[in-house]
Amino acid sequence: MLRCIAVDDEPAATRLLAAYIQKVPTLALVGTTNNPLEALQWVQEGRVDLVFLDIQMPELTGLQFLKICGRQCRVVLTTAYPEYALEGYEHDVVDYLLKPVAFDRFLRAVQKAQTLALGPPAPAAAAPAPLGAPAADYLFVKGESKNKFLRLNYADILYVEALKNYVSIVVPGQRIVTYQTLKDLAQQLPQPAFLRVHKSFVVALDKIRLVDGHTVYVGEAAIPLGETYREGFFQLIRAQSQP
């Protein structure tokens, strides 16, 4: 059981987080506050395991809170400003939730916190990693302004399309355009979870719905299978289909 508090100067935000916390049987709501100094006192008294923390607050910002708090508890940042993501992760936060926070995204952050709370697993016999399992589960891409970066979870990416010196990264319900070449981005993506199928396309292998001739379907998108990539692609597909 993780003891949780929600810290935000917006009452609606703390009410939402409190409701989410109370829905999860493995979480216990210690309290909510709009005063980060009060929250810091709770942490220093050892009453808290996990803090859902806003960044933009009067008196003490979330990032200042992190510097003072150190590693006394786990922290999940909640904010409407994605540009603070990199600095937040420098303080080893569990996760970074963008407002408005969806419940499924909240649950993923909780699962990360619970995994960290359990500590490293006991040594066991080495086993091969599942095909395409990434070493990390996210990457950062540059946003539309200086020093703005957007975190993207690998699991959310459907496919990537080259647009000259830009790439278009497609996730459910959204298309993100960033200044980067497809070649450079493809080197960042875990292999073979992401596969180059055309000079202009990289697809997430587990998001492929159908392969019909020389066309790969990811959701409703029909992506051409380039001649250069066909042999390697079909070899991988056949290997995946083996019992």
UniProtKB/TrEMBL annotation:
InterPro entries: 2C-system_Tx_regulators (IPR051271), CheY-like_superfamily (IPR011006), LytTR_DNA-bd_dom (IPR007492), Sig_transdc_resp-reg_receiver (IPR001789). The modification 4-aspartylphosphate is found at D54. Signal peptide: none annotated. Residues 3-114 form the Response regulatory domain. Residues 141-212 form the HTH LytTR-type domain. One of its GO terms (molecular function) is phosphorelay response regulator activity. Keywords: DNA-binding, Phosphoprotein. It holds the Pfam family Response_reg. This is DNA-binding response regulator. It comes from Hymenobacter nivis.
